[in-house]
Amino acid sequence: MQFDNNIAIAILMGTFVIMIIMKIPVTFSLAVSSGLTMIYCKISLMALIQTFAKSVNSFSLLAIPFFILCGEIMGAGGISDRMLNFANVIVGRFQGGLAHVNCLASMFFGGVSGSAVADVSSLGTALIPMMKNAGYDEDFSVGITVTSACQGVLIPPSHNMIIYAVSVGGLAGGVSVRNLFMGGVIPGVSLGLALMGVCAVISYKRNYPKGEKVSLKDAIKISRDAILALFTAAIILFGVTFGLFTATESGAIACLYALFISMAIYRELKPSYLPVILMKTVKTLAMVFSLIGAAGVFGWMMAYLRVPVALTKLLLNISNNKIVILLLINALLLFLGCIMDMAPLILIMTPILLPVVTKFGMNTVQFGIMLILNLAVGLCTPPVGSALFVGCSIGKIPIEKTVKAMLPMYLAMVVVLLMVTFIPGMSLWLPGLIYGVK
Fold this sequence. Notes:
Elements: H1 5-21, H2 26-40, H3 46-56, H4 63-76, H5 79-91, H6 97-113, H7 116-133, H8 138-148, H9 159-168, H10 177-206, H11 216-241, H12 247-265, H13 274-304, H14 307-318, H15 322-339, H16 342-359, H17 364-378, H18 386-395, H19 399-405, H20 407-422, H21 425-435
């Protein structure tokens, strides 16, 4: 070895951290820090280009464009509105009904889009003003919208689970996307129920109003319309679960189905708006895939410099107690989630932490759900929480005020996170029941 490994690691990590502090986009920070380290290590920069291309050259990643496009079609085609009305039929009549509707609608919407930010953007524009007009505090209205949207990254389909599966690669025997999808169902629903419990307590204390009762005739009509919308999620979930088609194929079929009901049944999506939807999808994809490529190069350099091995030894030197190590990993991920976005952290931290948790017998599916739930909390925490920023922008409220109101919701999310961390059955029972995963 013709270079000092410690200096190379310092260049890689130091350059990356400095560029992030300077608010340079994460993609460029990852690529530049990797490139400078390669120059120091006298590695040809052609390896950077080859690794970048190899990182995005994966069949599994083809599902991401379809899931993103499906979410855009849902938002523009009236599907999200019908899910909202259906949620109102189920839980709107209880005290704090609109808050419960918010949680349940996010559960439905997350079952199609797989994106927390898309959830906040689509449902928040309708629900936040509606809750404020009904007498809910504006900070609570924004807070529950933002935190409930995080169900979207857990409830299948989730493109973040696909990114995790790609980042695992051949580590610990790899991981199946369909196992991850099934593993996220119970934690996602549990998160929604925990947030609904918080809503119930706060609504009782603040005497928030009950929603209007829906007549039986209207309830039947709303449910009939919503079944068509919810069938979009069923195509993906059951198609992948029972092996009828892959995640990529299910995403393509779901897009075609969502397009059909939006244009032919609901007739709310005009052909003239299709170029706008496609342009939004392409812009999102450009960011996602460039980030995946740059993170792939960064991860390759970390593996080359044996950073995961060094960190594994460091953590094991701190303690051999499984509970202590898992708590430390959770604390680390919660901290990193506050300062970086979800996708790059999945790509960077998976190869580093997976060898550690597998030494303690944790399944790759369970770790994936734990990792994603950890980083989901980061989506609604300052200073980088993208879902939080979108929610506060819609609600026209300062972030500081919203964060204070969200403290009970953060607590509920952390409780579910600890359950996922220390109760393997939370994420492994369904994959075990269907596929025999242990």
